[in-house]
Amino acid sequence: MKKVEIPKVPRLVLKGFTSDEVTAMINAFTYKNYISARNKAMLAFMADCGLRAMNDKTLVKRGYSS
After folding, report:
1. What is the pTM of this model?
2. What's the CA gap between 34 and 44, in Å, rounded?
3. Ramachandran region of residue 50, left (φ > 0), alpha (ψ -120 to 50) or beta?
4. Using an 8 Å Cβ cutoff, are 60 and 54 in contact?
5. Which of 31, 38, 46, 47 sits CB 3.0–4.6 Å from 51 for a disulfide?
6. 2/23 Cα distance (integer angstroms)
7. Digit-coded pLDDT (tens) for 1-39
């Protein structure tokens, strides 16, 4: 019996954000309330560490966030 080869799917390379776009996203949040401060901190953390939204979501699911 012959094996069926799995077709190779081309990898989709997503375009990242520019430094100006990341700065604009971080500056969109203020420290007016807890949620805004939290969102600003999460965006800054993700930008500094090179994380994606899915990585951050995994941290929350595993219970690493408070």
Report:
1. 0.56
2. 15
3. left
4. no
5. 46
6. 55
7. 788 888 888 888 777 788 898 899 999 998 899 999 998
What is the distance between the alpha carbons of residues 66 and 60, in angstroms, rounded to a whole number? Answer: 8
C-alpha dist (Å) from residue 35 to 9, 19, 39, 51, 60:
40, 24, 6, 20, 15
For 9, phi and psi rounded to 5 degrees?
A: -95, 130
Cα–Cα distance measured from residue 26 to residue 43, given in angstroms and rounded to the nearest whole number: 6
The tokens of 23 are what?
A: 């700065």
Could you give the 3-state DSSP secondary structure of residue 27?
helix
> Among residues 16, 52, 46, 15, which one has the least CA distance to residue 29?
46
